[in-house]
Amino acid sequence: MTPAQSRAARGLLKWTQDDLAREAKVSVVTVRNFENEKSNPQRATVEVMKRCIEAAGIELISANGGGHGVRFRDPLVG
Q: One MF term from GO for this chain (predicted)?
């Protein structure tokens, strides 16, 4: 997950940085610094944030030539 994907996913979910921090059980400073590209948290920390976002119904789209993105997961696909 990229910092931009994190920001975009929160926007779709109408989550604040505090909301993501609470869901992922990390500090809001960790979320803020990651999204503002001021630090690179450990991979495991980003993975926890990513799993929380995905559990809330967001699909993170890899670049595959067209750029990273986010979207709501199709409930029919799973």
A: DNA binding
Amino acid identity, position 7: R
Can you give the three-state secondary structure of 23-58, one letter per residue?
HHCCCHHHHHHHHCCCCCCCHHHHHHHHHHHHHCCE
Q: What is the DSSP letter of 70?
A: E
Determine the straight-line distance between the first and last CA of the chain, rounded to whole angstroms. 20
pLDDT over 60 (residue 78): no
Other C-beta atoms lying within 10 Å of the C-beta of residue 63: 9
**Rounded to an integer, what distance in angstroms lies between the CA atom of residue 2 and that of residue 68?**
8
Query: Tens digits of per-residue pLDDT, 1-53?
Result: 999 999 999 999 999 999 999 999 999 999 999 999 999 999 999 999 999 99
